[in-house]
Amino acid sequence: MPDLPFIQIPDLQKIDTVEIPLPTAEVPYYIPMVVPPSDLREPEGAKPVQTAEPPPPPKLNLPPLPPIPIPSTEVLVTAAAAAVTAVAATTLTQPIIEQIKKRLQKFLQGKINKWKQNRQTKKESSPSSKKT
Question: Are the beta carbons of 57 and 76 closer than 8 angstroms?
Fold first, then answer.
């Protein structure tokens, strides 16, 4: 029998590997909003719950005028806050706007005066205005 080639394969060696943990992230989530169906009806035999009626809104009584209802506290607070903000903004910005206006007028007036002066010198130096 002829000699067949033979390869000696070494024993397997264990190779240590590094374990890398999987990345994680905090993903925002929202509680889903449940919308009732458009054909929602009370079940048969259900009775409405009796609730106390809210007190009527207070009214302002001025003798020559009919009673005037007073808005709720939330509406009054919102209106007052808007009014105070508007007045404060106007009061604080008015001097700044006045300063800008004065400086702009002064700048423009200077440009107009310079233009008039240049125009005058051009008229004086033009040949048609010279007399011989």
Answer: no
Extended strands (E) in 65-111: 68-69
Tell me the pTM.
0.37
Q: How many CB atoms lie within 10 A of CB 48?
A: 6
Task: List b or e across 68-88, with b for residues whose CB sees 16 or more CB atoms inside 10 angstroms.
Answer: eeeeeeeeeeeeeeeeeeeee
Model confidence band, residue 109 (pLDDT cutoffs 50, 70, 90): very high
Write out pLDDT tens, residues 26-64.
988 888 888 888 888 888 888 888 888 877 878 888 888
Amino acid at 100: I
Written as six digits, the tokens of 37 are 């169906």
Tokens of 78: 């919102």
Residue type, 131: K
